[in-house]
Amino acid sequence: MDIKEILSQVKEGTLAVEEAERFLSMGNYEEMGYAKLDMSRKERTGFAEVVFCSKKADSHLMSIYERLYEREGEVLGTRATREQYQLVRARFPQAVYDPVSRILKIEKEDKVLSGDVAVCTAGTADIPVAEEAAQTAEFFGTHVERIYDVGVSGIHRLLSRAEVIQRANCVVAVAGMEGALASVIGGLVSRPVIAVPTSVGYGANLHGLSALLTMINSCANGIAVVNIDNGYGAGYLATQINRLAEGGT
Question: pLDDT digits over 18-38, tens only?
C-alpha cells in the first residue's frame, strides 16, 4: 500500500492506527540482512523497486519477491533464468516468465496502458533487449508499439512505419552492429529518442562498444543513450517521458 491508501483506510476505519503505524514506520527501507528493500521508492519516484534476478541466491530471491508482492501486489524482475521462474511460480502460480526478454513478473490484472511509446530494433537479434524495454514500459502502464527489424541496411522498412513512429511520445531505438538506427530515427521524429546499443555484431563490434560510440557521437538531435543491452533502463526512461507527455507524474 502507498501512503494515500494507508491514510484513506484509516479514515474509513478499515485499517487500525497501529497497523498503519507499522507500515509507515518502515521508513525508507526494510532491513533483510542481505538486502535493504526500498519500500518508499514508489512514493518518491513513481516506480516501485524492481528485482535484478541474476546471480541472486534462491532464498534471497524468494524472500524479496514475497516482500515486494506483499507491499505492491505485483513484482517486476529482470535477467531471470527459467530455474528462477520455476522457483517463484511454485509460490506464485500467477507468475509469468518470458525467456526472450528474461522478464519474470507478477502483474496486476486489468492494467490500463496509456500513451504511446515506439520500440524499434535494427535486427531480429536485437529483440531480446527490445522486449526487456517494451515489457518494462508496459509493466509501468505504458502502451507500446513494437516495430522490429527495420535497420538501415533496408531503410525502406523503417520508412514504411514512419507515421507510427512519428506519433509516439518517445522512441526507443535498439541496435547492435554499428548502431546507426538511432541517428536515422532521430532525424525523422520530433520526440525524444532513447538509443540502446546491443552487444549484437561481429568482432569489431566489441560486444556493443562500437554501437555505443556511434550513438554517443550521433549528429542527430534529441538522442539520449543508455548502457549496452540496458533494455530495462530504456523502458523506465521511456515511461517517464510518456507520463509527462500524457500530463501525469
Answer: 777 666 655 667 667 787 777
